[in-house]
Amino acid sequence: MADQPHRFAGRISDWILHKDNQVIAFNKPAGLLVQPDKSKDPSLLGLGASYIRHDLYPIHRLDRPTSGLVLLGQKPSAQAAISQQFKAGTVKKEYLAVVAERPEEEAGTLVQWISEGRNNRSVVSDDETPGARRAELDYRYLGSSERYHLLHVTLKTGRKHQIRAQLAALGSPLRGDTKYGFKRSNPGGTIDLHSWKLAFDHPVSKQRISLTAPVPDQPVWAAFHEIMEALDWMN
Q: So what's the architecture of 12-234 in CATH?
């Protein structure tokens, strides 16, 4: 079947990173919804289902402005099995983040509490508050371009806007993320946060599957090309 038309770069088939009879993984463009919402804009779930010619089942979330790896179930049983892995914390989730302000410490673990704030924002607190949920991530400074800095983030929990809110609280909001303190927006309202690597146990074979999503083909990411090449070699 030919790819369906859409306003994002490339063909839908080019976004596929892995496919078997249980799961399918896409490299989602920034600005594309994962699931349909009231805006009725195109979604990865809808575009993917049209391409595959059957329903797909969401397993985890990725914010609309964010790019990168999204895993969908081809069967409800696969959705349920891998969703349970996310809840149990056995899925490894790695991100790349471009920030304007380099953190004072080159590496660290952030353990905080996140609650729902106004205007669809998450609020970070160092102390537990009623209704807040524990949020944990590890970050590591990788290198700098002329204007920006690249961080590697390993997400330990999965809270709404977690990386965006915790890095902003650290003093390092994501490039383009005006919701969390960056001064200028990116074209299309995107942010420079990329879901880079995901590792999970296959729901049937039980083998460990490790996937990597190439970063967007944009100048801000190209400036870190040599750093990311070295990082791939070390991994």
A: 2-Layer Sandwich (3.30)
